Amino acid sequence: QVQLVESGGGLVQAGGSLRLSCAASGFIFSLNGMGWYRQAPGKQREWVAIITSGGSTNYVDSVKGRFTISRDNAKNTVYLQMNKMKPEDTAVYYCNLPIGPYWGQGTQVTVSS
Description:
By secondary structure, the chain is mainly beta. Helices cover 0% and strands 52% of the residues. A hairpin with a 6-residue loop joins strand 4 and strand 5.
């Protein structure tokens, strides 16, 4: 049974940083790409970042240069390091396993101006 559990959300001031974590279980983590999505109030869920099983990464233009996705296969965990945060980054952030797809429960990130 696939499980994705996010943590690390919270309230941060503009310009600050947060690191999200997603602990995965129920599948062979090292063989799968993983992604992060977010959903702001009143908006559709949008893709934020992806990391392949080989470690290649890609980002939505709005976070390039500020966010970094990474993975630790020994811990079955994917991370999203968010720096230079902006109020428009405020959203619920979801961990994603593209095959399926499968989703975590989400973690709230709020950036105050």
